[in-house]
Structure formats: structure tokens, C-alpha cells
Amino acid sequence: xxxxxxxxxxxxxxxxxxxxxxxxxxxxxxxxxxxxxxxxxxxxxxxxxxxxxxxxxxxxxxxxxxxxxxxxxxxxxxxxxxxxxxxxxxxxxxxxxxxxxxxxxxxxxxxxxxxxxxxxxxxxxxxxxxxxxxxxxxxxxxxxxxxxxxxxxxxxxxxxxxxxxxxxxxxxxxxxxxxxxxxxxxxxxxxxxxxxxxxxxxxxxxxxxxxxxxxxxxxxxxxxxxxxxxxxxxxxxxxxxxxxxxxxxxxxxxxxxxxxxxxxxxxxxxxxxxxxxxxxxxxxxxxxxxxxxxxxxxxxxxxxxxxxxxxxxxxxxxxxxxxxxxxxxxxxxxxxxxxxxxxxxxxxxxxxxxxxxxxxxxxxxxxxxxxxxxxxxxxxxxxxxxxxxxxxxxxxxxxxxxxxxxxxxxxxxxxxxxxxxxxxxxxxxxxxxxxxxxxxxxxxxxxxxxxxxxxxxxxxxxxxxxxxxxxxxxxxxxxxxxxxxxxxxxxxxxxxxxxxxxxxxxxxxxxxxxxxxxxxxxxxxxxxxxxxxxxxxxxxxxxxxxxxxxxxxxxxxxxxxxxxxxxxxxxxxxxxxxxxxxxxxxxxxxxxxxxxxxxxxxxxxxxxxxxxxxxxxxxxxxxxxxxxxxxxxxxxxxxxxxxxxxxxxxxxxxxxxxxxxxxxxxxxxxxxxxxxxxxxxxxxxxxxxxxxxxxxxxxxxxxxxxxxxxxxxxx
Length: 715
Known about the structure:
With about 725 residues, the protein is mainly α. Helix content is about 45%, strand content about 5%.
């Protein structure tokens, strides 16, 4: 529980006719178990602390506090307090639901923007001076910034509409007329909700494929080394403290030099060298270097011998001379810690040098990022749901023969729920369970030291560090991306997109996996993470609950993906890349008509928005496949039987070379070529009968004819 913030401003607000200064701003809202009503912020405070009613582990610390003291105009400050409190409490629930504490800071910013506009135009913030002409001017003012989307404009326009409906809860009353004749903020701003698409970018397949590959490598191969090294360092620090406690009365320099020599002699016997830093820390400036230019790791040496300050060793001429002599005899070693390093499966060599204290901290943060990526991507959970995961959140269900049937991840749903959220289960797959297991160990020390509940805690031990990962999740993902370059011979480890590193945000993972499950369940990543298994698991959503929404997200992405694919078909057509298969003639007729209508030039689409509208009917019928695509038409589909559903193709009975709905592109050629090569390999053997060989030859010829047009076009 955070202490009640002090009132920070010497300019008092004007008195409110609605609320007393000692009114509890969180009255009626659920509070955390440690909250004390007597310590809560009051209406008269210029700084409101909302943390007692914030339950999400990923809530940004900046959202905890609303600072009204920066508003110089006392009347505007009073209006801001009254408006924000009305939005928090929602006195007119039939009008708007209450805003969450995490969005209250945005609510304050939008109100302040409107209030400052009124003050500049009219000299005050009295709502009685507002008329429709002034509101129209405000709309133009907001739209004047080209960086604002229609969605952002809507948020600004919400304020004056609110101030009409919430007038009874504002001193002096609100706007006396219904703004814009009762039109909604979406309508006024020009935002069409029905056609609005998710603007969160999908992570390109080469990018997410590489990120997932490296994330799973950290979880499955590197994690045991990192966690073992942390255990080693913890034991070493405990032993270090014991040595210090026993050392108070002994002579320093002689003692440290003797212990250092004894420790180095023991390492010599093991074939080990004098430890060096992997990277010279800033704290080693002025400390002697080894022959190769790396700094001696006096930190590790002092931990081993019980020396409280590195200067007691590094500034002793006799000790440094002895150290240099032994380095010349026994060699040196990067890192210096004892934890052995596992082999890289690609090279057969250790995946890194041995750890030192700094490189261990770096790899712990890399492991944390890897675990987050695995959990966020392979569950379809939102960031708030991932960051509310706690130790023991993975539940394993076993069959009667003790085989694992499924993994459940338990967390909390906040979106469209009460502030405290709703407990829910997600069905997931084994890699997520392994990532959670690693995080339970990795986060244990920080959780125990600071009495924290979430798995996703800040690993940095400084007093000023935030407790939880929260908004730092995007930053550690970027750190992970950049840090991987040290693991590969030819960086970047994660492919660039459009010539630049991909900009990751936490929102992208849920949308990306939904899109690939819907549109590329057989793609490059599919073999790495068992997409089929993952999709079946995720479709269960919140297990046993009717409010699961991941299936809806997948279906939305399927619709968008199908339309994107049809647009790609058309753009390829303009370039002369005509699809193959029986359906190609139908597509060419459609595309020729659209080109003549829109006036598109070869390789150039002139009106993307209208194009998508004209192709929408084809997008609704497209079913992307591994061997071909299907522009499904029940009337001509060869896969259907009289008792089959008329809404989707039966993939198991597909006839790619005969069905009028079948279409092939260049991306389908590879699996067909692989099938042909497999047939040719069988023909080389002596185990087949003459009849079987004839059948294979005929089948291969059929396959070659099927892809011939596509290969010719590609060439």
C-alpha cells in the first residue's frame, strides 16, 4: 500500500458545489486487500493516488497518480477533478460505464485539452458560454493535427458530449445543449466502427519465426545453465559473508594474497585460467588489464577469497605482480564462474563463455524476455493476462495412464471486466509450461525479497526499480532482439523488415498468432510449435467459460487474411504472375474487370480502398491450403457430397487438378515438387510391381502438368 500523497500545490482549487474536500475519491470501488480507507486520496488533494484500486500487475506506475496541481487555472482544476471523478464513479451508468483507474490519466488529459481551448477562446471554462459554433471550432482544432487518427479524434470529442450528460455533477452545470444534435463521438470524428480494422501490425513470419526459435532455445537449452549459475553465485555470496564475519582481526593484504594464490593454484590443477571480465564494467576503470586487453575479474576473485573491496587486491602491487605471473603460467579464462556451459546444437560447442556476475545478469534478462515471448505468443493471452500469471499457474491434467493430456494456465481477465478482474484458465501446450517453470525459478529471489505475487517482476535489485515488469515488457523484447546478435556469426539474428529492425509491442503477439493459425496453419513456424495442437488448445479459450474470445479473434483475422491474400492475387496478376489451376480462368475474368473499372496500371494499384471492396466477395470464399487454395463455390465443389455442409470445403476429398474452385500459386510449387521427387525416389527401388510403377509415373505426370503453368509464370 502506497502512502497517501501530500498536497503539492500552493494554489488552492475553487470549492466544489458537488463534492466536499474530504470526499473519498475511490468510494464504491473495489480496493486491494492492503488498502486502508483512512489513507486514501481525497477530493481536495491535488495529487490522487489510484493504486489501491488497481489490480493489474502490468499497470504502469505513472498511471497510479493523477496530478491536478500542474493546472494553473483554479476553475479548470476544479472542473478536471469533478469530471474525472464522475467518469470514475459513472453516476449515469445508462450513459457510460465507469472508466478504469488505468485510463483515468488519459481522461484527465483530454478534459484538460478541451478546458484550455475554452479558456483561450472565451477567457473562462464556464460551460454556459459554449455553443455549437465553438464546438465545431474545437473539432477543427483537434483535426488540424495530421498525426491524430479518427479514433484519437473521437476521444477528444467524447469530452464535450460527456459534459452535457454529466452536467449535474459539475459545479455550475455542464454544456446546456446536446452537442452535434445528439450524433455520437464516432460519427462526429468520422470513425466507422463497422469497417474499422485492427491497426496493430502483425509480426512478419520470418521475424516471429526467428524470435520464437531463439526464445525456445533459451527456454529449453540455455535456461538450465543460467539458473544453475545464479545458484552458484548465491552460494558464493553466502560463503563470502561467512568469511568476512570470521576475518575481522587478521592482517588484510597478506591474507588476501595468500588466499588468492591458493585459489588460483586450485584452478591451475583443474586446467582453468585466471578469470577475466567478458566485458569491462565501468567500475573497473584504472584497474590493471590482462595481456589480451580484458580486465581481470577482481569481483569474482574477491568473492572467492572473502575480500570486501576489490581495491584491496587490485591496488596491491605485490598481489597484482603475483597475479600477472600466474596468468602467464596458467592462462586466462573469460567469465570465471564454475557453472559448465551446455553445447550449442548447431555447432557442438558451448553456446557462450563461462559466466561472470555481469554477463549472468544480462542472460537472466534475456531468459525473462524469451519466457515472455513464448507465453504471450503461444497462449494468445493479452499482456495484462500474461503479467498476472503467478507461481503454480500451470495445471497439468493427466489421463488414467498418467500421460499428460493438456496444460492449463490460470490467470486473470481484465478487459471488459470489473476492476479486480475475473479468474480464468487458458489451454496451452508444453513449451509454455516449460517457460513458466523457468520463470518460477528465475523470479523467485526478487519475489521473495519484495513479497511480490506475479512471475513477471523486475530482476534489477536496486531500490528505485519498479516491482513488476509492467511497461518494460516491450523494452526487454527489444533488448532480446538486439542481444541475440552476439549469438550469431552474421547478425542480425532476427531478420530486418523493410530494411529496419522490427518494432515490437506486446499487443502484436496475440494478433499475430491468431492470424497465422487462421491463415497459415501449415507455414514455416507450424513445424516448430505444433500450430495444429496450439490452435485446438487456444480455441478453447477460457476453459469452461462462455466468454472466451480467442476464437473470435482468430475468425476476425481469418476474414482479414483471406482478403489480404486475394489482394495479393490481384497485385500479382497486374505484374503478369497469373495463378494456375482450374479456378484461374474465373479469377482472371474477375481481375480483368476490376482492372478495367479502376484503371490500375501493371504493378500499380490506384485505389486500394475501393479494390478491397470489390474483392471482398472473393475473400469470403477463399480457403488457403498447403497444396492449393480453394475459392469455394458449393455448386461446383467436387469435394461435397449430398449430405455435406454447404459452407466450407472438405479438404480430405480435395481434387486440386480437377475442381473448378482450385487455384495454385508459386508458394504451392515446393510441396508438389517434393511429392514428385518422392515418387521418383520410389521408382529407383526394386520393391514395386510394374503396376505400381506405372501408377506413380502417371501420378507424377499429373502433378507436373498441374504446376507447369505456375512454374512457367514464375520463370
